Amino acid sequence: xxxxxxxYEHFNVTFPQEYVAHIETNRPKKMNAYFEPxxxxxxxxxxxxxxxPSVRSIIFTGSGPxxxxxxxxxxxxxxxxxxxxxxxxxxxxxxxxxxxxxDFQDCVSALERCEKPIIIILHGISYGLAIDLASAADVRICxxxxxxxxxxxxxxxxxxxxxxxxxGKVVGAFGWVKEVCMTxxxxxxxxxxxxxxxxxxxxxxxxxxKGGLEVAGLMAKKSPVAVQGTKELLNWSRDHNVQDGLxxxxxxxxxxxxxxxxxxxxxxxxxxxxxxxxxx
Amino acid sequence: xxxxxxxYEHFNVTFPQEYVAHIETNRPKKMNAYFEPxxxxxxxxxxxxxxxPSVRSIIFTGSGPxxxxxxxxxxxxxxxxxxxxxxxxxxxxxxxxxxxxxDFQDCVSALERCEKPIIIILHGISYGLAIDLASAADVRICxxxxxxxxxxxxxxxxxxxxxxxxxGKVVGAFGWVKEVCMTxxxxxxxxxxxxxxxxxxxxxxxxxxKGGLEVAGLMAKKSPVAVQGTKELLNWSRDHNVQDGLxxxxxxxxxxxxxxxxxxxxxxxxxxxxxxxxxx
Amino acid sequence: xxxxxxxYEHFNVTFPQEYVAHIETNRPKKMNAYFEPxxxxxxxxxxxxxxxPSVRSIIFTGSGPxxxxxxxxxxxxxxxxxxxxxxxxxxxxxxxxxxxxxDFQDCVSALERCEKPIIIILHGISYGLAIDLASAADVRICxxxxxxxxxxxxxxxxxxxxxxxxxGKVVGAFGWVKEVCMTxxxxxxxxxxxxxxxxxxxxxxxxxxKGGLEVAGLMAKKSPVAVQGTKELLNWSRDHNVQDGLxxxxxxxxxxxxxxxxxxxxxxxxxxxxxxxxxx
Amino acid sequence: xxxxxxxYEHFNVTFPQEYVAHIETNRPKKMNAYFEPxxxxxxxxxxxxxxxPSVRSIIFTGSGPxxxxxxxxxxxxxxxxxxxxxxxxxxxxxxxxxxxxxDFQDCVSALERCEKPIIIILHGISYGLAIDLASAADVRICxxxxxxxxxxxxxxxxxxxxxxxxxGKVVGAFGWVKEVCMTxxxxxxxxxxxxxxxxxxxxxxxxxxKGGLEVAGLMAKKSPVAVQGTKELLNWSRDHNVQDGLxxxxxxxxxxxxxxxxxxxxxxxxxxxxxxxxxx
Amino acid sequence: xxxxxxxYEHFNVTFPQEYVAHIETNRPKKMNAYFEPxxxxxxxxxxxxxxxPSVRSIIFTGSGPxxxxxxxxxxxxxxxxxxxxxxxxxxxxxxxxxxxxxDFQDCVSALERCEKPIIIILHGISYGLAIDLASAADVRICxxxxxxxxxxxxxxxxxxxxxxxxxGKVVGAFGWVKEVCMTxxxxxxxxxxxxxxxxxxxxxxxxxxKGGLEVAGLMAKKSPVAVQGTKELLNWSRDHNVQDGLxxxxxxxxxxxxxxxxxxxxxxxxxxxxxxxxxx
Amino acid sequence: xxxxxxxYEHFNVTFPQEYVAHIETNRPKKMNAYFEPxxxxxxxxxxxxxxxPSVRSIIFTGSGPxxxxxxxxxxxxxxxxxxxxxxxxxxxxxxxxxxxxxDFQDCVSALERCEKPIIIILHGISYGLAIDLASAADVRICxxxxxxxxxxxxxxxxxxxxxxxxxGKVVGAFGWVKEVCMTxxxxxxxxxxxxxxxxxxxxxxxxxxKGGLEVAGLMAKKSPVAVQGTKELLNWSRDHNVQDGLxxxxxxxxxxxxxxxxxxxxxxxxxxxxxxxxxx
Lengths: 280, 280, 280, 280, 280, 280
Known about the structure:
Order of helices and strands of chain A: EEHEHHEEHEEHHEHEHHHH
Largest interface: A-B, 56 and 51 residues
Number of strands of chain A: 9
CATH architecture of the largest domain in chain A: Alpha-Beta Complex
Radius of gyration of chain A: 20 Å
Strand order of the largest sheet of chain A: 1-2-3-4-6-9
CATH topology of the largest domain in chain A: 2-enoyl-CoA Hydratase, Chain A, domain 1
Helix content of chain A: 40-55%
Shape of chain A: globular
Number of domains of chain A: 2
Strand content of chain A: 5-15%
Structural class of chain A: alpha/beta
Largest sheet of chain A: 6 strands, mixed
Oligomer: homohexamer
C-alpha cells in the first residue's frame, strides 16, 4: 500500500503491519523541530490516512532520539512570532495572527478528527508542540528517557495550538496541568504515567514503538466500524453532557448496528477464529 | 421493609442495614448475563428505590462469582443485534434501533438519576454492560479477582448504553479510556484502582460487600437532604460549567437550607450523639 | 510594596519574594474558622492582588497549625444557617438564602477569577471551606499532617460555595469525589496526592510553604503576559468544548502574541540570561 | 385504526384522515380545565401515537368553545399547590414538589418528543396550561375568538411546566414574551399572529380545525422518514449551536438517506403522481 | 420611600406609583451622553433597587427629548478609546482594555440581573449605548419620535457592552440584526415595532411614559415571588436548552411554590378583590 | 482587482463597487441547479474573498430569473442520493454518506465563516439549497417574484446542509419554520418579509440587486475592523449564552480597540468627511 501514497518531504509514512500506519517526523538533525511547511504536510498526511481504507490505526514517532524539540523558534521568530506590528495597527496584526493561529490549530486538530485511532510515542526531548500533538492523539505512551515540557511560557506566550484546550481533558489532575503549563518545568516518564498523561512507559524508544504497535495492532484487528465509532463517540462525549452523549450515540449506532461486522464477530467468536472485516 | 416491595424475577432486593438496600442480579448460572426483561426490571427496581423513604443508599452486586458477563449475546443476536435489515429499508431499521437503544440507555441511566447514592461492587467477570452500569453508579469498588472489560468492539459495535458517554467523566486519564474502549482488553482490580475507576479493592467478594456496606452505611447515617442534594449537585456540575454549577447549587440550597436537619445535626454534634433525621 | 496595600483585619498579606504575595488567614485561635466578614475581606484582598502590577503569583496559607476548620458553625448558626423560616414564608426565605449564598460563592470564586496563579497550601485541619477554597485555587499542595474533609453533609447541608461544582473538575476520579462528598470522611495527604487533588506533599507546613514559594517563584519569573494568559485559557477551556477552547485561545493570543515579552524571552534564551518583563 | 387504540377517559382520539390523528380534550363542562389524571392520560396518548405506524401527523383541540381554561385550580389547591408545609420541613416539601413538577413537565414534553408533528389549534379560552402545551407543539394556529394568557403569575406562581422554557424559543420578540409572562394579560388572535406565536388565524374553531387538518394532511403525505427526521433535527438544532446541529444532522442522515423513500419520491415526481411510503 | 435612597448625581430616581421606581438619566444638555461615572452610578442604582423590598418594577427614561446620544465620544476618546498604545506593548494594552470593557459590560448587565422587571422607554435620539441598555432591559417601548441606531461601527468599533450579545436574542429576525449592526443606519419606531424590538409605540414621550407605567404597574400588582421568579426563569431559559430550562424551573419552584402568595392570590380571586403580598 | 482573481467555471465574480464583490451563480439554463463541482467551487470563491483585502462586503445572486432550483436532482440521484446500499453494508454506506454530507455542509458554511458580510438576493425560483445558502448568509433580501421553498421533504429527505440548523436561528417564529420545513410549501416575498426571513422586498430582481448593493456599499464604507468584528461577534453570540458572548467580545475588542480606525472615524466625524481605512 505504501506505493499508493505520495512520498512526503518532512515525514516518513510506512506500514509496519497490516492496517497499521506509522508516521515519523523526519528532521532528526534539528531534533524534529517544526516549521510551517511541516505542520501543513502533517495535516495532509493525517487527513489522507483518516479515510484511507487500508489504515485502521496509526502510530506516530520522531526520527532519531527526540520526538520533537517543538516549534523551530528561529523560523518562528522570523514569521509567526514576529508580527511586525510596527507597520500596521495592532487590530490588523491581530486579524493576521488569528488566521495564522487558526490554521496551525487546524493542523494539530487533524489528529483528533482523524477517523482512525492514533497512538503517539513520546521519546527523548518532547517539548512544546510535542504536548499539543500528544494531547490531540488518542493514546500516549513514552520511553523512559522522554523529557516532556509545556514549553511555551518560557518563550513568552500561552500555548495556542491545543495544549491549553486539551491537556485538562486528557489528564484528570487539573492542578498538575496548571503547574506544568505555568512553570514550563520538565517532567519525566514516571510522572507522566502517574498523572495519567501517558498510558505506559517502556524502557527505550525501540520498546515503546513495539508497545505502540501492539496497541495499534489490537485495534486494527477489531471491526473498523466498531473502533472508529468508538473514537468518534468518546470524543463527542468529552465535549458534551451525558444526555447529549447518549442521544448522539443512539443516532450513530442506528446506522452502525446494521453492519455485518456484528454477525462476523459473533460467528468468529463461536468458531474461535479471528474475524475479518470489509474495508472501511 | 422488604415486605413492602414486590418480589422481583431477576433480582434479589434486600435490606442488610437500616436505610441501605442491596440489589443483586440473580442469574448466576448464566454469569448474570443480561437480556431485555432484566434491564427493564432493573429500571423498575431502581426507580422505586429512588423515592422510597426507607432507602438512603444502595449497594449493587451480582449473585455468584461474576458480576455480569454483559449482554446475553445469544439473546441479543436474536433481537437487538439482529435488526433483520433485509425486510425493510435501512432508514426504518434505524428508527427502530434508535428507539430500542434509547430505552435500554434509559434503564442504565436509572442508576444515575436515582436520588440515592449507589455503590456498585464489581467482582469476577465484569464485562460490557458491567462497565455501563458501573459508570452510571456513584461509587465503584471491586474485589481483587474482578476482571473488567469494555467488551463491545469485540462483537463489532461501539458501546451504546453509557460507557462511551460516562467513562471519560469518571476516569481522568482519557488516554486509558480510549485504549480500553478501542482494544477491549481485560483489566484487573489493581489497574482499575490506579486509574481511579474503582475507589478501593478488597481481597474477595465478601470483603468487598462488607466494604461497600460500610460506605453505604456512612452515607445512610447523614442527613438525607444533604446526601441526596450532594449527589444531584455533583451530577449537575459534571455536565455544566462552574458558573452554572454554582448558580444551580444556590437555587437548590435555597430550599434545602431550610431543613431542620441542620439544627439536628448541629445539636447532635454539640451533644456528641448521632442525629436522626426524618424520612425523605 | 507591602506599604502600598492597606492592612487587613483577618488576613496577613506579605511579599516574601519579588512578585510573589502571601495571603495568610489570621484567626489561629479559632483554627482559622471563617465568619462572614472574613470571606468578604478575602474577596477584597484577592481582587486587589488580581490587578496589582507588583504581583505575579500568590501563595495562600493559614496562621498556626490548621489551614481552616471551615465555617465558624456557631456564627453561621446564628446567621446563614438560621434562616428563621418561622417569620416569613419559605419562598421569601429562599430569596434571601439565594442572595446570601451567591455572595458567599462570589468571594470564593475570587480565587478562580484572580488573574494571577494561586498556590494554596493545606496544612493540619483543612475542613469544609478549605476544600471550597482549594478547589478554586490553581495549584494545591499540602503538608503531611493535613487532614482534609468535605465536611458539609455532617452538618446537614450540601456544600454550596464551590466544592460540588469544582472538585470533580480538579480531580479525575469522580467516584472518589462522590465518596468523600457524601460520607464527609477525612482523608490525608497521601490519599490527596494519589487522586491528584494535591500536586505534592511536604514533610511539614514549613517545608510546604517553601515548596509553594518555589512553584510561585517559578511562575513569577516568566512573562506575566504568558502566565496570566495561560491561567485564563486553562480555566476557559475547562468550561468549554475543545473547539470553543481553540477559538478563544486564538482570539486571546491575537493580542497577546504582540507582546515584546516574546522577543525578550527569545533574546534572553540565546544570551543565557534571565529575562525581565514589564509590569502587568 | 381507531379500534386499535384503547378508549380514553378524558380525551377523544379520532382519525379524520389517513395518517392523521385528532386528540380532543374532553371536559367541556369545565372548560377543559386539567387535573392530574388528565395530563397523565395525555402523556399516554401522545407516547402511543408517537410510534404508531398509522399516524404521521396530529392535530390537538379542545371539546367545546374553550381550548382549556388551564389548571383546574380547585383541584390543584388541594394537591400540587397545597404542599402542606406545616407538616414537614421546607426542604422535604421541596423534594416532593420537585418530583411532582418534573412529572407534570414530562407529560407536557410528550408533545415535543412525539416523533410526529403536532398542530395545536387554540380556540376560545386558552389560558395557562394552554400556552405550555402550545409551546411544546410544533405548529400553532388559532381561531379569531381565541383568548390567550400566560395566567400563572395571577395565581402567585411562575409557570413551571414549559411556557417559561419554550415560549422564548418559539417567539422571537423576547420583550413581548416577558411582558405577557409577567403581566398575565390576555392577548388575542391578531396579536398572536403578529408576534409569530401562531402561524395563522381562522374565522372560527371549525375553520381552524379545517385549516389544521390541511397542514397535517400535507405533512402526512410526505415521506415519514423525511418529516420525522425534520422535526427531530429542528428540535435538536434549537437547543444546540450551528456546528453541533450540522454534525448531528450528518449522523442522522447517514442512516436516513438510505431510505427507499427518496427513490419513490423522485420517481413519483417524474411520473407526476403521489408517492406512497411504507409505514414507519 | 424616596427618602430612603441616597440622591444620585447623574440620575433622578423617583417612585411614581406604589412599588414602581423610575430611573431617569439626567444629563439633558448633553443629550444624556454617558461618560464613565454615569455607568458606574447606574450600576449602583440598579443593584440597589434589585433587592429593595419596596420596588417591584422599574421604568427607565432619559431627561429631555433624547433617551441618550450614546457614549460621550469626547470623553471616551480621552479614555477608553485612547489606549495610548505607543507607551506600552499591545498585549499589556489589551489587558487594560479587557478589564475596562468587562467592568463597563457589568454595569449594563446590572439591568439584566436586576431581580425586578425593567421597562425601558426609548424616546428621541437613542443611539449606541441606548441599544445596549435596551437589550439588557426586559420590555422595550418607545415614542413615535424615537430614532434608534447601533452606532458603533460608525466610530470604528464593534459594539462591546451588550448589543452584539443580546440583540439577536431579543429580536428574532437575525438578518435585520446584522443589517442594523453592520450599517449603523438609523431606524424608527415603526420599524422597531415591526421587528419586535419594542413592544409598543406611543405618540410621544409623555404617552410612552404613561404606557410604561401601566405595564410596570400591572407587574407590581402581582405576587413578587411569581414575577421575579418569572424574570429569572425566562432569562435562564434563554441561555440554556429546554431540558435545562425545565430542570432549573422545577428546582426554583420547589421553594417558590411554598409561598403564601398562592393562597392569597387564589382567595382574592374567589373573593374578587385585589390581593396584597408581603414585601420581597 | 477582478484580474487578480482566477476566472471560475460556474460563477461570475465581479466588483460592481469599490470593496464590494458580486458572486453570481452561472448556470441559468438549468435554473442554476447545483451539482457537486459547483458547491466545491463556491467554497473556493468565498474562502478566497474572505481574506481578500480588496473586499469588504459581498452580494450573491443567480444568473437569469431563478436564484436556484436547488440541488440538481438528476445529478444527485446518480451520486449522493444513490448510495448503492446493495453493495456494502449500511454501516459502511453511512460512513460514506456522513463524510459526503459533512463536506457539502462545509461548502455552505463558507458563507457563514466568511469574514466579510454577505447579502444574498433571492429572486424567482429559490428552492432547497437556496434556503440553505440564504440561512448561512448575513442579510437576505428578495424580489417580489421570489418563490421560496424548503423543498427537501418532497424528495424524501430532511434538509441536511444547513437549513434545519440555521433557519430557526434567523427567523424567530419557530412554528412557521416547522411548517415550511415539514410541508415543503412554497412561500412568497411578502410572507418572507413578514416573518423576518428577508429584510426587504424589491419590485424585481434589478431593483433588488440595486438595493443589495446599497446595503453592501454602506457596510463597505465603514471601518473593516469594526464591520468584520461585528459579524464575528454576532455569529459567536448566536451560538453562546450572553455571558460567554460578553466575555468573547471583551477579548476580541482588546485587540480591535487598538485600531487606528477609531481615531480616523472620530476625526472624520468632526471634520464631516468620509473616513478611509487601511485594507484588512
